Amino acid sequence: MLRIRKRTNMPLWQQWLVRFAAIVLALLLDAVIIYLLTKMNPLKVYSTMFTGVFGTSRRVWNAIRDIMMLLCIGVGLAPAFKMKFWNIGAEGQILMGGIAAAACMIYLKSLPAALLLIVMFIAAALAGGFWGFIPAISKAKLNTNETLFTLMMNYIAIQLTAFFVTFWENSYGSGIVGTINPETQKGWFPPLFGQMYGLNVVIVLLLVVLVYCYLRFTKHGYEIAVVGGSRNTAKYAGINVPAVTVRTVTLSGMICGIAGFISVAGQGHTISTSTAGGRGFVAIIVAWLAKFNTFVMVLISFLLVFLEMGAKEIASRFNINDNLSKMIMGVILFFILGSEFFINYRLGLSKAEEN
Amino acid sequence: MESVNTQRSEYAVRMVDISKTFGTIRANRNVSLDIMKGEILSLLGENGSGKTTLMNMLSGIYFPDSGSIYVDGKPAHIRSPKDAHDLHIGMIHQHFKLVDVFTAAENVKLGIRDSLKKTKAAIRSICERYNFTVDPDKKVYEMSVSEKQTLEIVKALYRGADVLILDEPTAVLTPQETEALFDVMRAMKADGKSIVIITHKLNEVLEISDRVAIMRKGEYVGDILTKDADAQKLSDMMVGHAVSLNIDRPFVEDKKLRLKIRNLSVKDHMGVLRLDNVSFDAYSGEILGIAGITGSGQKELLEAVAGLIPTMSGSSMIYIDPRTGKEEDIKKYDAEQIRALGISLAFVPEDRLGMGLVGSMNIPDNMMLRSYKEGRLGLTDRRKPLDLAKKVVDELEVMTPNLDTPVRKLSGGNVQKVLVGRELASEPSLLMAAYAVRGLDIYTSYAIYRLLNERKLNGGAVIYVGEDLDVLLELCDRILVLCAGRISGIVDGRTARKDQVGLMMTSLGGNTGPAAD
User: Fold this and answer.
1) How many domains, in total, are found in chain B?
2) Are B193 and B78 found together in one domain?
């Protein structure tokens, strides 16, 4: 009989060793799968993943762009998640931020370029924040279930986006907004350090540091941790739980709104219902695996984007069904998530456990 | 089902030498209990005396570590509630085991392959027989507490229970509903069924039962026929003889009024009156003990003063500031505002990890709970809590691998030291502590008593809710006895006798008759 016991203190280096071992094991299993199904050399497939992501500087920058996007959303989720408020409405908050940013680009193009970007930033943060505020106030006042509420808010945001896409439709009948301000490039991120996505990196890394400090060193951050730890204790300590809830989730929505702004101004220069593209959900994995530590999120975001881009590359290079690449990704994620079990629990035979 | 034999000499159930241990706690120690056919047996004892554990072993929730059970004279191994049903034993738990979204009939037939039609007919006939009213089609979430209890009884009877165990059934009932329940119990007894009622209310014991079995601290004390018993005898058996503990009780000459509670009434979120018109004073330089059966309103009393739960109109809680002498009615403030007003109030709640501390945080972060608002510029000051954590760990000898360990990984006694250490750090002028030594070893308990005494000597007013009467009688200057949300009396800790306090705990004002309204 197997017995599972809670493990209390595994040294940090050992924890990382377990995680590393998990990735190695996953790659081994993937190799077997690849070989059995395609008879290809697994090493060749893996090296293709690397070249797919690091092959050219363009690819590297595309990877960085995607990493920053995912990271930004993960960072946005962190405060809410740390408070044990399960905000799965990032998708909608991103879209609302995107709509606000696009609206500014369309209607305020007469503003100076720098000022327009600042206005867009603020508008997107407010729109995303508002989308977080609604489920938060409802939770604070009526104790509604935030998971359902934030999820439903996503669908409203998608419908709103669909409406505005039709409303702003460019070239009549196309059904898309198309690139906004293609000539003037008003509201576009200017290249920074000669790099198209330079500003994306700066904004997101700044957020990583700011949110880390906010959660770790401020009174607000402490209140979030206490509410997340025990609402009763928070009340006992004189913390206004409803106010903290609303404040924190609004902040969470604001950062996700900023992610929408970055997506519109720094990447697509347009708005569509796929502006969020499911990343609001993928970011949940990022936030969760990083245990809400924003610096660890950089690593996790990298890993996820690497896997996704690499998988796409394999699919196109070897002309195989992209289900195989999804399988490879799935195995790796499964092993990483599974390794947490071995970090938190100890397995043993029940006989050995007798006293 | 057709046990018509009401002869007192026949055993329905015999439990012999039963022991049950949970971790280090010995919930039952060599307990032997007989249940006769056709009797109403009261199982009496304080909270934590092991009554419910014992009955849970009869109803298949727990399995005894040792000892044997005989049902109808045959050895029985009750491994699950189903085994208990098969032996015609049913138990009505304090927390009802009903499915809220199901109807009464669906709940009754749960797990039994009967048609709903048959079940409904059976419910009606049971109701007729014992004069119940249960609507088989009513959903459980639409029912009142008393309806749910009736349904639980019907459920047990439908399953053919001949031995029915009721765990503190009157705790949630109004006096009228209690009377109705007693009528039902008498009808069932007349029908030849055996009934065990777990309770700590003496007047009910005397009113309903034929025989009383008493437990104390996991052990069986003895039994007595109700006709030979009176409240004094029962409470003596329940609380036992006074034991000398040699706890210090320094005397402070100069006492000053610190807290004036008048007409304090509190309803819980279910609308049940938990504190009824409570008035008392607390002075600096004294420890005011609060005695009572668990659930008599102690928790509500402390939480009301701490500003955690709303009080009813007409209540007043005047705090007298020791420096300025200014009077402030803190009734209208919540915990946040009381803190902001600079009222020096500390509270060691009963639920240490659920209310006093955050289990996932380390010791310094838990110290910060009281002081985090002092930091400047929106930032937290981590130095002071860290120093305090070191000091508490040092002075109170907290056993922890390091300061970074989450407090939930510490043992109960160490968790309590962290909590008490933090609360005392502010040198509060009013200190409230609930069950501060529960689960602690002797050595740690005395350390806590010493800390409480220090606070008293340094001009603090201390309110101490305790469950061990011996401790209360040696530690406290005065003891306020609560009974069912009301003040049963306030006695001098130096002259009060244990039997006297025990009686006041179980019946209002220490009277043996039913409480006057």
Assistant:
1) 3
2) yes
Give the structural domain span for B456: 252-344+428-517
Judge whether A233 and B354 are in contact, CB under 8 Å: yes
Check pLDDT > 70 for residue B2: no
Evaluate if residue A337 carries a pLDDT over 50. Answer: yes
For residue A229, list chain B residues with Cβ-Cβ distance below 8 A.
358-361
Exposure string (b/e) for B238-249, b if CB count within 10 Å is 16 or more? bbbeeeeeebeb
How far is residue A214's CA from residue A247's CA, in Å, rounded to a whole number? 13
- Check pLDDT > 80 for residue A15: yes
- Residue A207, pLDDT above cutoff 80: yes
CA B273 to chain centroid: 16
Check residue B354 and give its pLDDT.
85
Which chain A residue has its CA at the smallest distance from B338's CA?
A238
CB contact under 8 A, A236 and B308: yes
Encode pLDDT of A239-282 as tens digits. Answer: 999 999 999 999 999 999 999 999 999 888 889 888 888 889 98
pLDDT, one tens digit per residue, over B226-238 is 988 887 888 888 8
Q: What is the CATH number of the domain that holds B179?
A: 3.40.50.300
Q: Are residues B33 and B156 in the same domain?
A: yes
Statement: residue B471 has pLDDT above 50: yes
Q: Which tens digits make up the pLDDT trace of B423-467?
A: 988 888 999 999 888 767 777 788 889 889 999 998 899 999 988
pLDDT at res. B239: 78
What count of residues does chain B have? 517
pLDDT at A289 over 90: no
Domain termination site, one of B410, B426, B442: B426
Q: How many of the other CB atoms lie within 10 Å of CB of B485?
A: 22
User: Domain spans of chain A?
Assistant: 67-297
Query: Is 90 exceeded by the pLDDT of residue B46?
Result: no
Q: Which of A8, A219, A239 sits opposite B379 (nearest CB)?
A: A219
Q: Are residues B191 and B317 in the same domain?
A: no
Q: Note whether B435 and B389 are same-domain residues.
A: no
Taking the Cβ of residue B126 and every Cβ of chain A, the question of whether any pair is shorter than 8 Å is answered with no
Rounded to a whole number of angstroms, the distance from the CA of B397 to the nearest CA of chain A is 22
Determine the Cα–Cα distance for residues B58 and B43; give it in Å rounded to an integer: 13
**In this model, does residue B389 exceed pLDDT 70?**
yes
Interface of B with A in 289-308 (CB under 8 A): 306, 308
Percent of chain B with pLDDT over 70: 95
- CA neighbours closer than 13 Å in the CB half-sphere of residue B107: 28
* Domain end call among B214, B239, B264: B239
Residue B329 and residue B415 in one domain: no
Which residues in A lie closer than 8 A to residue B369 (C-beta atoms)? 226, 233, 237
Both tokens of B384, joined, read 């002071």
Is B351 exposed, middle or buried, given 0-12, 13-18 or 19+ CB atoms closer than 10 A?
A: middle
Q: Is the pLDDT of residue B24 over 70?
A: no
Residue in A8, A232, A240 closest to B355 by CB: A232
Both B136 and B211 in one domain: the answer is yes
Using CB atoms within 10 Å of the CB of residue B66, give its burial: 0 to 12 exposed, 13 to 18 middle, 19+ buried: exposed
- Most A CBs within 10 Å, among B379, B384, B386, to test the A interface: B379
Chain B residue whose CA is closest to A228: B358
Considering only the beta carbons, identify the residue of A223, A229, A239 that sits closest to B359. A229
Cβ atoms of B270 and B308 within 8 Å: the answer is: no
Residues of B in contact with A217 (CB under 8 A): 379-380
